[in-house]
Amino acid sequence: MSHFSPTAAVNYFFNYFLMKGVLVTIGLTVAAVIGGLILGMGIALMRMSSNPVLSGASRFYVWFFRGTPLLIQLVVIYSGLPQLGIKFSVITCALVGLILNEAAYLAEIVRSGFMAVSAGQREAAWALSLSPWVTFRRVTLPQAFRLMIPPLGNSINSLLKATSLASVISVEELMRRSDMLMQEHFQILEVYAAATAYYLILTSVWDAVQRRLEKHFGRSNAPKTRRAVTTPSVAQASVEARA
Amino acid sequence: MSEMSMKTAMDSGVEGAMAQPQLGDVPAVRMEAVYKHYGDFTALNEIDLKVAKGEKIVVCGPSGSGKSTLIRCINHIEKHDEGLIYVNGVELDRQRKNIDAIRRDTGMVFQSFNLFPHMTVLENCILAPMTVSGMTQAEAKDLAMHFLTKVRIPEQADKYPGQLSGGQQQRVAIARALCMRPKIMLFDEPTSALDPEMVKEVLETMKKLAEEGMTMLCVTHEMGFAREVADRIVFMNEGKVVEQAAPEEFFKHPKSERARTFLDQIIH
Question: Measured between beta carbons, which residues in chain B are less than 8 angstroms from residue A129?
Answer without folding.
Answer: 100, 103-104, 128, 132, 180
